[in-house]
Write a structure and sequence with these properties.
Shape: globular
Number of strands: 8
CATH topology of the largest domain: Double Stranded RNA Binding Domain
Radius of gyration: 19 Å
Number of domains: 2
CATH superfamily of the largest domain: Ribosome hibernation promotion factor-like
Number of helices: 3
Length: 170
């Protein structure tokens, strides 16, 4: 696995790099050598945060954990990623025809998810109006047509506060 370690508003110590490489080595059994992993260390309001993103054959596994120390945050993030991989192994193989080598007894057996289909009118509006609609509906995200570009976009509430906007790449 190709691991990239970065720091946001901090300089990454060699001990953090070593920690990331050591902890992510456990995923070598799931992914091939071409898999890319990015580990980001950051501090926000005195809390240490580790964000791990693994890109494998177009599928993205991501975890962001905060704790009092980077070591604890890294442990939690690695556990979270492992749960994601094990939980979604069957679905991911069916959807992407992936081959992740996890022994049959080693992942969680779950029933198929209960999927609720919802339809709605997709109408043109500004980003601000989409955020207002999302808040009125008390949802975490809202899909809309951008009134300027005509693209299908998504606004969402960010974990740390504020909003995000997803725009399709052209």
């Amino acid at each position: 696995m190709k691991i990239t370690v970065t720091g946001r508003q901090i300089s990454v110590k060699d001990s953090y790099r070593d920690l990331a490489e050591k902890k992510l080595a456990k995923f070598d059994k799931f992914f091939d050598k071409d898999t890319e992993a990015t580990v980001t260390f950051k501090v926000r309001k005195g809390v240490e945060i580790v964000e791990i993103t693994i890109v494998y054959k177009g599928t993205i596994f991501r975890s962001e954990e905060e704790n009092t120390t980077f070591n604890n945050a890294m442990d939690n993030a690695v556990e979270s990623l492992e749960r994601q991989i094990r939980k979604n192994k069957t679905r991911l193989e069916r959807i992407r025809h992936m081959t992740i080598d996890i022994p049959e007894d080693d992942y969680l057996q779950e029933d198929e998810p209960d999927i609720r289909v919802k339809t709605f009118e997709l109408r043109p509006m500004s980003h601000e109006e989409a955020i207002l609609q999302m808040n009125l509906l008390e949802h975490q995200f809202y899909v809309f047509l951008d009134d300027e570009s005509g693209d299908t976009c998504v606004v969402y509430k960010r974990k740390g506060g504020g909003y995000g906007l997803i725009v399709p790449e052209k």
